[in-house]
Write a structure and sequence with these properties.
Blueprint lengths: L4 E6 L3 E7 L12 E2 L2 E2 L2 H12 L10 E6 L4 H12 L6 E6 H8 L8 E6 L4 E7 L2 E8 L12 H18 L4 H8 L1 E4 L6 H11 L3 E3 L6 H14 L2 H4 L4
Parallel strand pairs: 5-6, 7-10, 10-11
Antiparallel strand pairs: 1-2, 3-4, 7-8, 8-9
């Protein structure tokens, strides 16, 4: 569930939902997630019921994996879990979006990895070490802001400032090692040449775009879902 779009993947069927994150409780549209923050949990629940309620088996309680922003993730995860309760899940697993992106890209998680997720309303820079989040920064800018006075250069400079702060505060070589390895780029911003070209020039580091970057997080969650189905904790429990 993103600020701009909500995507869902179902085992055996692939991506079945890729729609704007919007509800219609009255005569007008309401956007229940803003800048990566769920502001209307009940609205998200209604949206999920409308989008997925008829797609899930009636007699089986599903295992659900939800991707979440790294920063503000605790509040997001709590509200997301409350929203997906409408689907009567057996278990709910949450995963940082950056880790989902890395999994979708088949990245080697045994080495430090910088993931840059440029969404419609939010951009996160995340350092992963052994698959775990070591550092993360965010800026409330995204591709939707390009429709106003914000420029691609503004987004790039905001990213550069966040990465510079990460470098300055890192007393190890992890961030430097990750930059030398190359930044993994995902989100809708990875499809905007005016952003990727400027990022490459500004960061002076290799830039690797994840395959189908706008759906990378949900496809990474799908990999985790497939793995979770075979784990004794979930596979051995009744549906």
């Amino acid at each position: 569930m993103g600020s701009a779009r909500t995507r869902a993947w179902i085992a055996g069927r692939g991506v079945v939902v890729d729609v704007p994150t919007v509800t219609f409780p009255g005569p007008g549209a309401v956007y229940p997630i803003q800048r990566g923050t769920i502001i209307d949990t009940a609205g998200c629940a209604r949206m999920l019921q409308r989008l997925l309620g008829h797609r899930l088996p009636r007699l089986v309680r599903p295992l659900i994996v939800v991707t979440a922003p790294v920063l503000d993730g605790v509040a997001y995860r709590a509200r997301a879990r409350a929203a997906v309760d409408v689907l009567r899940p057996r278990h709910v697993l949450t995963v940082p979006s950056a880790r989902g992106i890395a999994l979708a890209a088949g990245a080697d998680l045994s080495r430090p990895l910088l993931v840059l997720d440029i969404g419609a309303h939010l951009t996160e820079a995340v350092l992963l070490c052994d698959g775990a989040v070591t550092d993360a920064r965010r800026t409330a800018l995204g591709t939707s802001d390009l429709e106003g006075t914000t420029t691609a250069s503004d987004i790039v400079e905001a990213v550069a400032a966040k990465l510079t702060a990460m470098l300055r505060q890192d007393r190890t070589s992890l961030t430097v090692d990750a930059l030398r390895r190359g930044v993994l780029l995902a989100g809708g911003g990875a499809l905007r040449p005016e952003i990727t070209y400027r990022l490459t020039a500004r960061l002076h580091a290799p830039l690797k775009v994840a395959p189908a970057p706008h759906t990378a997080a949900v496809r990474g969650a799908a990999k985790l879902l497939r793995a979770a189905h075979t784990h004794p904790f979930t596979a051995g429990r009744p549906a």
